[in-house]
Automatic annotation (TrEMBL):
Pfam families in alphabetical order: MFS_1
Cell compartment(s), UniProt: Membrane
Keywords: Membrane, Nitrate assimilation, Transmembrane, Transmembrane helix
Superkingdom per UniProt: Archaea
Molecular function as annotated in GO: nitrate transmembrane transporter activity
Residue span(s) of domain Major facilitator superfamily (MFS) profile: 20-433
GO cellular component, one term: membrane
Keyword Transmembrane: yes
Originating species: Ferroglobus placidus (strain DSM 10642 / AEDII12DO)
Gene3D superfamilies: MFS general substrate transporter like domains
Protein name in UniProt: Major facilitator superfamily MFS_1
Amino acid sequence: MVSAEDLKKKYGLKGDPKEGLIAATLGFFVGFAAVALYGPTAKEFKDVMGLSGTLLGLLVAIPQLTGSLFRIPFGAWVDKVGGKKPMLTLLALSVIGMAGLTTLLILYYPHGLTMEMYPLILLFGALSGCGVATFSVGIPQTSYWFPQKRQGWALGTYAGLGNTAPGFFTLLIPFALAALGLPGAYSAWFLFLLAGTIVYAIIAHDAYYFQLVKKGVPRDEAIKIAKQLGQELFPSGKLVDALKISAKIGRTWALVALYFTSFGGFLALTTWFPTYWRLFHGFDIKTAGILGGVGFSLLASFIRVYGGYLSDKMGGERTAIMSYTLVLIGAGILTISTSFAPALIGEILIGAGMGIANAAVFKLVAKYVPEAVGGASGWVGGLGAFGGFVVPPILGAFVDAFGELGYARGFIVYVALALMSITISLILKKRYGHEIH
């Protein structure tokens, strides 16, 4: 019998599952940092350009537009060509966006940065936000490398580590800003993104099946060889059908609404909290970055792992009801609070609730849409993340309407979203909880 190493040498195959996981996680981490593109530095843009609350909200949200909408088509593309080409395409678009933004800041900040440049800054933000969509590429890219029995560990590691990027960047950007100034901070970020993209291009390899197909090996033979090398999952070519099937199932859209609140909310508040702490509570940029990065973003990212454990133990419906109740309480406190201590408690509660809920929703996807899990995951992940783009301008509109107090009153949006999500979770539990297996 031919050994695995001999097979790899015969067909010129590269990589292994460990290297595949490292590459996918690197690509996701590097690209996903764009969630925090404008949030920590929003005050600087607001001051020099004279932005209204609504325009400020749109600015911090714009990376989430491409970052959410590109998830579905680029995730589907992986089944055709493997993960490397889609990931590199998204990272390259992000590099172009960061290059444009950095050049603009070097040439025109601060005095030349006027409202006339606002559309261009939005465009560069949208391009940079393409990196946010790497999540949907890295998930199947990682899955194809690992056997079924190690999927949970591999995907948990991938999502857990990569998801921390916005929190770390929310923490680091204020210190870079203080040391290097706004153009220097974004120049450093651009170099990090460029270096990460280059390293990914060098170390990333598609799973064996995709390498074999690219070398001209027929599909059936490629599957046979890849199976000998340990690969268990293969593209079925049915994702478009799965998207169509899942779109016709009402439960899919219920889960989209839940994820809109939790993950869309996570993306939105990752960008909004640094602005909230600076402009409403008057903290300096470093303190605001720590409060937003640790108190919310990193907390929500790390507690997502515990959310998966709770969902296994308590069931996804009960976990969702509990977690959205935490969001409701946290949002309620933030809405009425004007002092620091209650606001911090509210932030911690809303962050914990969103992190746990993110895990609970995906626990329910396989249960409620078993006939089209891939398609449902695409709708839930892509359209749910769209909340990161929709909500910040609404929060900004509250600032325009109520003045400084609007930074607090805007959290009423999350009170409403949490109530909606609790209601949906209760209906799902009552109507379908015991019917679907």
